[in-house]
Specification:
Pathway: Glycolipid biosynthesis; glycosylphosphatidylinositol-anchor biosynthesis. One of its GO terms (molecular function) is transferase activity. Keywords: Membrane, Transferase, Transmembrane, Transmembrane helix. One of its GO terms (biological process) is GPI anchor biosynthetic process. By secondary structure, the protein is α+β, with helices and mostly antiparallel strands. The chain has one domain. Helix content is 33%, strand content 40%. The strands form two sheets. Strands 1-2-3 form a three-stranded antiparallel β-sheet. The protein has a three-stranded antiparallel β-sheet with strand order 4-5-6, with helices on one face. A hairpin with a 4-residue loop joins strand 2 and strand 3. The radius of gyration is 20 Å and the shape is elongated.
Amino acid sequence: QNSMVLSAAIFITLIGLIIYLHFVKIDQESLLVIGSLGIQVTSSYASGRESTTFIEMGQVKDVVINEAIHMQKVIYYLCILLQDPEDPQGVSEVVPLFQSSKPRLDCLIEVYKSCQEILEQRKTVPQSS
């Protein structure tokens, strides 16, 4: 009886670990910004699975560094502001980036500057219809 309970506990623990590694534990996050196309956000999980999200450049209003207070500590994170289709001045959604890796502020500033350079190039180049 005890060995059966122990076997069931081990089995449930292993299943939980596999689910955790496949759906929760992110090993690496990357951001690819192409001014003429859009922004691709990729998360690589510990199991080897990858999740990719693509945001068209026409939807991107801006990229900002946001701050939040969490457990008596200020944390910084990079966000993509998506343009509201009905109100060109408004923001329809805020997409946070690097939520698992939580890079330091100096790293976020470097990524932010690179994103802003690409966004500025996109604004100065005339759009063809």
